[in-house]
Amino acid sequence: MSAYKAFKACVPVEWSERLYITLVRGTPGTRALHRRTLEALHLTKCNRTVSRKNTPTLRGMLNQVKRLVAIETKEMYEARKQQEANHRALRPPLVVSHDSAPKMESSQ
């Protein structure tokens, strides 16, 4: 599940030592307070992820910009990265043979 889909599905975030925060919406048109909060989180470009220690201060910052970011635990982040890696993995080539079908011998 992508970070944005997890955010939209309102997946409950379990307590975790570290949180992975991904910026899923752009900053143009947002309030200056929200832009400054994202700068403090070091989130400047869309689809960038940062890892931060789970503290009450961080939770307050995330509560301000919750519509702009997706929050994941370590397990959710690693599962998403593994799924993306599997999707990008090389696949064996498709071999198509244009030879005519082998003739069947009749044993009579």
Automatic annotation (TrEMBL):
Gene3D superfamilies noted in UniProt: Ribosomal protein L30, ferredoxin-like fold domain
Gene Ontology process terms (BP): translation
GO cellular component, one term: large ribosomal subunit
Keyword tags: Ribonucleoprotein, Ribosomal protein
Residues annotated as domain Large ribosomal subunit protein uL30-like ferredoxin-like fold: 20-69
Pfam family, one: Ribosomal_L30
Entry-linked InterPro entries: Ribo_uL30_ferredoxin-like_sf, Ribosomal_uL30_bac-type, Ribosomal_uL30_ferredoxin-like
Region of interest called Disordered, as start-end residue ranges on this chain: 80-108
One Gene Ontology MF term: structural constituent of ribosome
UniProt record similarity statement: Belongs to the universal ribosomal protein uL30 family.
PANTHER family attached to this UniProt entry: LARGE RIBOSOMAL SUBUNIT PROTEIN UL30M, MITOCHONDRIAL RIBOSOMAL PROTEIN L30
Protein name per the record: Large ribosomal subunit protein uL30m
Organism of origin: Oldenlandia corymbosa var. corymbosa
